[in-house]
Amino acid sequence: MIKVIVSVDKNGGYKSIEFSGHALFADYGNDIVCAAVSILALNTLNSIEALCGDKFDAEDDAAKGYLKAEFKSKLSDKANLLIKSLMLGLDGISHEYGKKFITIIRQEV
């Protein structure tokens, strides 16, 4: 199962997002749930960096299905919109395929 932990401050501002695990929906190379989550996550973070200029520290281990981004400051409006779009996509995957394959945890830090 993929676990997504989204950390926000008391005002709802995004602080970090962490992905861990594999969906195990299908065999390696055919797992559309893992592929969808990976594409959403990587494209969002690449877009924030390239298009918005917001800074974050990233840590990843592809073999373990691990990716974490910690935002260095309050996100710009554009980056915030990209994260909201990411969350919309992740929620859609969770709704379509179920918590057996992806769990999303939102926490205030």
List the helices and strands and how they pair.
Blueprint: E1 2-8, E2 14-20, H1 32-52, E3 56-61, E4 66-71, H2 77-97, E5 102-108
Parallel strand pairs: 1-5
Antiparallel strand pairs: 1-2, 2-4, 3-4
Helix pairs in contact: 1-2
Number of helices: 2
- Looking at CATH, the homologous superfamily is Cysteine protease Prp
The percent of residues in helical segments reads 25-40%
Structural domain count = 1
Biggest sheet features: 5 strands, mixed
CATH C-level: Alpha Beta
Class by alpha and beta content: alpha+beta
- Rounded to the nearest angstrom, the distance between the terminal CA atoms is 24 Å
**Assembly type:** single chain
N-to-C order of helices and strands: EEHEEHE
Walk across the major sheet and give the strand order.
3-4-2-1-5
**In one word, what is the shape?**
globular
